[in-house]
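Subject: Sanity check before I submit

Could someone independently write out the structure tokens for this chain? I want to compare against mine line by line before I put it in a report. The sequence has 579 residues.
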Amino acid sequence: MTSALDTLKRPVNRLVRLGVAFAAVGALVNLVPFIGLTELGRLLLDGHAEPQLLWRWAALVVGALSLGWMASGLALWLTHLADHRLQASLREAMVRKLGRVPLGWYSDTTSGAVRKVVQDDLEDLHHLIAHHAVEQTSAIVTPLAGLLWLASLNWRLALLAVLTLPIYGLAYRLMMRGFGDKMQQLDVSMTRVSAAIVEFVHGIAVVKAFGRAGQAHRSYQQAVDRFSTQYAGWVRPLLRLETFSSMALSVPLILLVSLGVGSLLLARGWVTPLELFAETLVAVVIPQSLLVITQSLGAQRTALAAAGRIEALLQVEELPSPTPGKAPEGRDITFDQVEFGYDPAHLILRGIDLHCPAGSVTALVGASGAGKSTLAKLVPRFHDVSAGRVRVGGVDVRDIEPGLLYRQVGFVLQDAQLVHGSVAANLRLGRPQASDAELEAAARSAQIHERIQALPRGYQSLIGEDAILSGGEAQRLSIARTLLADTPVLILDEATSHADPESEALIQDALSALARGRTVLVIAHRLASISGVDQIVVLDQGRVLERGSHCALLQANGAYARLWRASTETTAPNLEMSL
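---
Independent answer below. Compare away.
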């Protein structure tokens, strides 16, 4: 079965093969200067050579060097062109894939892991396409052609040129034992480090708000320590072997062996001085060729591992998109016998029946792990149901084209996600055509306009550069973005959970403005903030236990009443969100 990566590589393989052909030509031509220098030495030692003949051989040496450089340069140009085309195709394919995967995939996959694939792994793949084949060809053809030439002069010369190679071969074999498994382990550890870095940076706002500096870098430190331990445990035993292998390929040692053993061969009359000179020229080329081969093989293994991760990304199942799609006829939300599990064998939601009338506010409450966030995220299709239906405006969300669905359903999650760009660009993500006046109106409603105006360049300030926002400010910016998108259905997942008290009050005001006139589904962790909503639904182990208003559920003295008493006993009163 042809993989997605193989399909993308097929159009550039011809360029790579052509580059290899030019590399082989360049490698063969590079042997001509050795032959020319040897012949020049013979003519000069003879003492009767005509100057014109000497100049011919000298011109041949210079011409061969120039031709070899040109062929090698053309080979690398062709493979780099192939790499450029492949990288462009891969980036387009990954962008398309990332735009079509379920939103829940991003919840299950760390941003560090995604960054490693779309950035680091593409850079590693560059060596495989642009350098590996050309460098391997040159490193193999040049010494092999040289050895054949030496063998044609005197078979003893070919043996002398490779006399130290068995030592290197043995050391290299010992060093490469288990290399593939070790590289996979290091790749996994490096992915953890990348993910920990991203999580640490994203958590800076929380650290500043709550002063948890002692714990903020713990996961990063653990990831780095694990990588350091694995790397040191692998590399330390190899250092001695590396020393022996390096000595076996060092030019001084090769010259010592060639001249020492060559002197014995000269003394016995088995070789001539010019033949020994030719052997020395070839022998000193072999170490560099072997180093290129071993380094290229190591880079190839890294690139193949990167290619595997890229292939895994390209194979991620996409969110099915209906053709043609249906348009919602209203803004109510209905869950009809909904079942869902990340693993089909272990359901999280079981038989959920729930109706959220248009313009109403419904709060989902329950213990941690009850399925609140999972249920709410089925509305914007973070995942598709295992059974049953989720309908918006009377239409199954699976029958609504994703672009249209996201114009109908907006969501504000616990962690505000901002992209690198201007404040204005972040606000316009859901509505690119919005005017400056509309941007300002949304920011004012979200209680963030004054903070934006205080930035060095106002709405044109760049997030992460001259626009450094706290967690609460980023959340209010996210709310303004959702206000500007003006979706009739809204999902709120406890948007104040990471905010300090001052930011929480502003966020609550912004949420009140955001919820006005919309159908809202709230995932509530702080019960005091949802006492005024239209409908409260209590979930437990993926099932609906109770539903009703705040007062009615308190009078029923059931699960909600117990949750309410527990919340009022353990926490101070919270600001009520006037939804």
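---
OP: Matches mine. For the report I'm noting this point. Strands lie at 333-340, 349-356, 361-365, 387-392, 395-396, 409-412, 489-493, 519-523, 535-540, 543-548.
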